[in-house]
Amino acid sequence: MTGNCLVQFLGGDRGEKPPDLPGVRAGNVHKQMTIIKQISEKEVPMSMLLHADPSEKCIELYLHGSKCFGAFVEDSLVGVCVTNSNGADAWEIYNIVVIPEKQKQGFGKKLLEFVINYFEETGAKSLELGTGTFGYQLLFYQRFGFRVESVRRNFFVDNYSEPIYEEGIQLKDMLRLSIKYDRPGT
Ligand SMILES: CC(C)(COP(=O)(O)OP(=O)(O)OC[C@H]1O[C@@H](n2cnc3c(N)ncnc32)[C@H](O)[C@@H]1OP(=O)(O)O)[C@@H](O)C(=O)NCCC(=O)NCCS
Known about the structure:
The chain is an alpha+beta fold. Helices cover about 20% and strands about 30% of the residues. It has helices at about 45-50, 55-65, 105-120, 135-140, 155-160; strands spanning about 35-40, 65-75, 75-85, 90-100, 125-130, 145-150, 165, 170, 175-180. The strands form 2 sheets. The protein has a 7-stranded mixed sheet, sandwiched between helices. The structure holds coenzyme A. Coenzyme A (COA) binds near residues 98, 105, 109, 131 and 140.
């Protein structure tokens, strides 16, 4: 897991190129007939978001006024990404999740790449997020060029009522990551 709320953050350098995922940039349909598109916050099931963030209260805060994206297979919603503005053309991924039975099949990568490209194309300056200091999720983001900006020690201890464990280790600190969309001349 690693949803987050209560965040304010700026900037970062865009590093590596995202992995090449045919079918995503060219449109939004790939060979398994996945469609990724913007959806309304009302279409996002709370039960899905809770897989990534155990705090319904936090989710309600960042879901309000958010820009949401859904991954659909045969009209069925299999994954969502909730983003919200941090002001000054900075956007933040607050929650990204694929339903458990569809995980590890490439939907998360397609969804994340779609969102990264969406904000690049709409003129955002940066895309930010908060995640744990270890775990596969950190690799997932770093493979797409997210870079570490800072650490928030004890974020998950101070902001969640129950301890959060990943692979048997208590998650305590949050890493702030970002992609900065470099545009020459701006
Ligand atoms: C993170 C998440 C959205 C990724 O979506 P996904 O569809 O499972 O991911 P993909 O199939 O596109 O795979 C992305 C990479 O993560 C790896 N991965 C995904 N789930 C994993 C798991 N449970 N354990 C280890 N690696 C995992 C995949 O093997 C893949 O690695 P690769 O590029 O080396 O092949 C999804 O696993 C999820 O919903 N997790 C629970 C909620 C969560 O933690 N959200 C992120 C909050 S920070």
